[in-house]
Amino acid sequence: MKFTPYLNFNGTCAEAFRFYAELLGGEIVESTTFGETPAAAHVPADFQDRVMHAVLAVGDQTIFGSDAPSANYAKPQGAYVALQVDSPAEAERIYQALAEGGTVEMPLAETFWAARFGMLVDRYGTPWMINCPPQQ
User: Fold this and answer.
1) Signal sequence: where (predicted)?
2) From CA 43, how far away is CA 59, in angstroms rounded?
3) Are strands 6-9 and 61-67 parallel, antiparallel or unpaired?
4) Is 126 among the domain residues?
5) Where are the alpha helices (H) located in the chain, listed in sequence order?
6) Which pick of 21, 62, 70, 71 has the fewest CB atoms within 10 Å?
7) ∠ CA 55-56-58, rounded to 5°
C-alpha cells in the first residue's frame, strides 16, 4: 500500500508542477489536459488546456494533481504536504522558494524535535510542512 497526495488547483496545476519539479529535482512523468481526453468535445473552451491529471515523480515518491472545475475548487484545509529533508541547508532552500509569494504560517526554525521545521502555504495554495530531523 502507498499513500499519494493529490493536489487540486484553480487553473495553475501545470505551472505549479513545473515549479515543484524544478525545486525538488523531480520530473513530470504524466500530464493530460481536459482537451486531450475523449470527453474534450464536452469540455468548455476555457478548460481545454487545464490539467485533468498530472504525476510528479521525485525519486520513488509521487504527487498527483489536477485543475478542479472552478465551481468545485476550494482552498486546501486541514492537510499539508509534509516534506522531510536531510539537511538544514536543503530545508532553508526549499522553504524559501515555497514561501516566495506565499503565506508563512510558522517561520523555518530549529525546534525541540527538528534541526529545522516550518509551515507555509505556497503561491499556488498548497500547504507545506518542511521538516529536517536533528543532525547526528
Assistant:
1) none
2) 34
3) parallel
4) yes
5) 13-24, 88-99
6) 71
7) 140
pLDDT tens figures, 25-73: 999 999 999 999 998 999 889 999 999 999 999 999 999 999 998 888 8
CA distances from 109 to 123, 126, 131, 134 (A): 21, 20, 10, 12
Give the domain extent around 104: 81-132
CB 54, CB 64: distance < 8 Å: yes
CATH number at residue 30: 3.30.720.100
- The answer on 20 and 51 residing in a single domain is yes
The pTM for the full model equals 0.94
Q: Determine contact, residues 66/12, Cβ cutoff 8 Å.
A: no
